[in-house]
Write a structure and sequence with these properties.
- The structure is a single chain.
- The protein is α+β, with helices and mostly antiparallel strands and 674 residues long.
- The protein has 3 domains: 191 residues, Heat Shock Protein 90 (2-Layer Sandwich); 117 residues, Ribosomal Protein S5, domain 2, CATH 3.30.230.10; 171 residues, Ribosomal Protein S8, Chain: A, domain 1 (2-Layer Sandwich), CATH 3.30.1370.
- The protein is 34% helix and 19% strand.
- The chain contains 20 helices and 22 strands.
- Strand 4 and strand 5 form a beta hairpin.
Length: 674
């Protein structure tokens, strides 16, 4: 019987290896840019076209390769980074496997130009599918140039699985940013489809972060620094008030190599405990320097995961360092007791005891022991001064208190309108201070009153002519629900999630969030298509800050957003000025809404079969839809049901999930037929 095990051809083995090494265009970018860093380059330029599907070009000014190295670099397991197994635990470079270039050459058209500074001429190699088409000397500058064209040209199935250009370019930018942040001492440039996306000059770490993520980043950063025997930590964390919904600005670097670690991320979240809103993610850019022999980086194909010798100690140190950085710069919430130093005790009185206060009481004092004559005299003088001092023509303020709008009659007016006999009797007030004849004031008072009544117009005061406002109660504050109202109620909300509406055959159960997503999706899509969305002007324009890459995405989305009702007054390199909003969006939601929109478009939110307008409408509908847990009144419930069935496709949400189900009466009968 013949043997069934045989060695694979080199080109087949390379294609299999490429399945792990090259997953998408960003994988090629990562490998080539890291090789340029390992070559000692100080200037690296990355040029991509169609998110890397058509072209990836990396140019560096590193030390280059001679003719032999240029030919061997495309062989499997050929590397200059390690010589023996022990070197795996003392790595100081990015790449070391020797499979990257061989895998890339197996699935693309590759053109290599390289030259060392000591050589007069360089080497020019052209390859296609692991086959060398040509190799010749050429006049080229110092350094290396890798040109990758038509990625996955011989594996169409892999090419069909690639996402849209916006999603793939987001991955390219991610890998580019990770290398650029780890090496601020290198000048990086990224050009996409002929447009410069990044131009990062040589700088320090803080300036590199500002150049990558925008000018507003500087005020968001809090430095973190800690040196121990186990690890040295440096970098920055974002202030809690600038936390975002996504984890796009979270970077861990170990020995200048980007890694992912859920364990270390938990340490950061523990340090921010109590400072973040629910669902918010802090920004951090942390660099950890550890002894190379204390980590194992050869546990994952992409080398983005690392195994530490003492993870628990590293967890505690990282958590304490971040917490110390937050507290040192007064970012954490604290109670500030501002005191008035003038209230401080003198130094010589600090140790003295307080002296109890004494109270002196005059036991012979009696406030009621006053002469009645003095009281009567005081009252009479006050009465004469306030009411009768203006008989000669002065104005009185007995009632009006000098207010020209006071409608009450004054004392002077009452005196002038009184009968003459009454006026004379007022002047006959005894001048003596003796109060024994006070009864004389009321003599002939009845006659004087009758005289006053004679001056008034005659009026028959018949109480039968007086009408009073009816106190009859026409309704009850708490009306009872009668059968008519109960019969007219068509919808019911259950658990603030579902809306139940009776139908002829039974009942309909509607998911309020999915139904509202469908309604909003078709509204936004119609506005974008027909350009008829109303807009509300803002009294003060709203200024929002974004990174350079996000600003380019907003420029691409500008026309569709304007058709939805947004109005952009100005767009700069790192900020945008919005002067108008759709009528359904409030100003406080704009920043969060655009942030989620950019995240959805950059991530695998939709496949490439959807156009840009559909993607925007779906993202907006998901963000603005009624969430589970929102209470709706009867009118809102009926409006949602009517709006849903006015849509073109009311059965499913924009995400292909059912919006409602129907329950037949026979199904209910079966539940009770036990």
């Amino acid at each position: 019987m013949s043997s069934i095990i045989q060695l694979l051809p080199d080109h087949v083995a390379n294609q299999i290896a490429a399945g792990e090494v090259v997953q998408r265009p960003s994988s090629v970018v990562k490998e080539l840019v890291e090789n340029a860093v390992d070559a000692g380059a100080t200037d690296i330029k990355l040029i991509v076209k169609d998110a890397g599907k058509t072209l990836i070009h990396v140019i560096d000014n590193g030390k280059g390769m001679n003719v032999t190295d240029a030919r061997l670099c495309f062989e499997r397991h050929a590397t200059s980074k390690i010589r023996q197994a022990e070197d795996l635990f003392a790595l100081h470079t990015k790449g070391f496997r020797g499979e990257a270039l061989a895998s890339i050459a197996a699935i693309a058209h590759v053109e290599l130009k390289t030259k060392q500074a000591a050589d007069e001429l360089g080497t020019h190699i052209i390859m296609e599918g692991s086959n060398v088409l040509s190799q010749e000397v050429a006049v080229i500058p110092n350094g290396t140039s890798f040109l990758i064209k038509n990625l996955f040209y011989n594996i169409p199935a892999r090419r069909n699985f690639l996402k849209s250009d916006s999603v793939e370019f987001r991955h390219v930018v991610d890998d580019f940013e990770r290398v650029a942040l780890a090496h601020p001492e290198i000048h990086f440039t990224l050009i996409h489809n002929g447009s410069e996306v990044f131009n990062l000059p040589i700088s320090n770490l803080r300036q590199r972060l500002v150049n990558v993520f925008g000018g507003k980043t500087n005020e968001k950063l809090v430095p973190v620094h800690e040196d121990t025997d186990l690890v040295s930590i440096r970098g920055f964390v974002g202030k809690p008030e600038f936390a975002k919904k996504n984890r796009g600005e979270q970077f861990f670097f170990v020995n200048e190599r980007y890694i992912k670690s859920h364990y270390l991320h938990h340490a950061i979240m523990s340090a921010f405990e109590g400072l973040l809103k629910d669902g918010s993610q802090p920004s951090y850019f942390l660099f950890l320097d550890v002894p190379p022999n204390s980590i194992d980086i050869n546990i994952h194909p992409t080398k983005t995961e690392i195994k530490f010798d003492d993870e628990q100690a590293l967890y505690a140190i990282l958590r304490a360092a971040v917490k110390h950085g937050i507290g040192q710069f007064s970012v954490a919430n604290a109670i500030d007791f501002d005191r008035d130093h003038s209230l401080d005790l003198p130094v010589d009185m600090i140790k003295k005891e307080a002296v109890k206060p004494t109270i002196d009481v005059d036991t012979s004092f009696n406030p009621f022991k006053e002469e009645e004559m003095e009281t009567s005299q005081t009252y009479t003088s006050k009465l004469s001064a306030s009411n009768f001092s203006s008989y000669s023509g002065g104005s009185s303020k007995a009632f009006g208190n000098g207010n020209p709008f006071d409608t009450r009659i004054s004392t002077q007016e009452a005196f002038d309108t009184a009968p003459k006999k009454t006026q004379e009797r007022f002047h006959e007030v005894p001048k003596s201070n003796n109060t024994q004849n006070w009864e004389s004031l009321y003599v002939n008072l009845k006659a004087d009153t009758a005289a006053i009544d004679e001056t008034l117009p005659s009026k028959s005061w018949d109480t039968t002519d007086i009408s009073f406002e009816s106190d009859e109660v026409t309704g009850s504050l708490f009306e009872s629900i009668d059968d008519t109202h109960q019969a007219s109620k068509r919808t019911y909300q259950i658990h603030k999630k579902y809306i139940i509406s009776p139908i002829k055959s039974g009942m309909m159960i509607l998911n309020q969030q999915r139904a509202h997503q469908r309604v909003l999706f078709e509204q936004f899509l119609e506005n974008i298509t027909l350009h008829k969305a109303p807009s509300q002007q803002l009294l003060f324009p709203l200024q929002l800050y974004f990174s350079n890459h996000e600003m380019r995405m907003i420029e691409e989305l500008r026309h569709d957003l304007e058709h939805m009702g947004f109005m952009f007054e100005q767009m700069n390199s790192d900020n945008v000025l919005i002067s108008g909003l759709p009528v359904t969006i409030i100003e406080s939601e704009v920043a969060k809404l655009i942030e989620i929109l950019l995240i959805d478009l950059q991530d695998d939110f939709t496949d490439k079969t959807y156009n840009q307008a559909d993607q925007i409408a779906k993202s907006m509908a998901r963000s603005l839809s009624i969430k589970t847990g929102t209470a709706l009144n009867e009118e809102e419930q009926e409006n949602l049901v009517n709006s849903l069935f006015g849509c073109k496709e009311p059965n499913i949400s924009p995400f292909n999930k059912p919006t409602f189900i129907t329950l037949d009466v026979t199904e209910l009968d079966k539940k009770f037929a036990l």
